[in-house]
Design brief:
With 35 residues, this protein is mainly alpha-helical. It has one domain. The chain has 2 helices and no strands. Helix 1 packs antiparallel against helix 2. The longest helix is centred in the N-terminal third of the chain and has 16 residues. The two termini are 13 Å apart.
């Protein structure tokens, strides 16, 4: 569960940065981990 939270936090922070490419990468990583 801790890993999931870490990924989520990273994705949120990346989205705040305002990067489409980074957002896609974070989303893909999160999806992979969630799956």
């Amino acid at each position: 569960m801790t890993d999931k939270v870490s990924i989520f936090a990273t994705g949120d922070y990346t989205t705040n940065l305002g990067g489409d490419e980074r957002r896609i990468l974070a989303g893909n990583l999160g999806f992979s981990v969630k799956r």
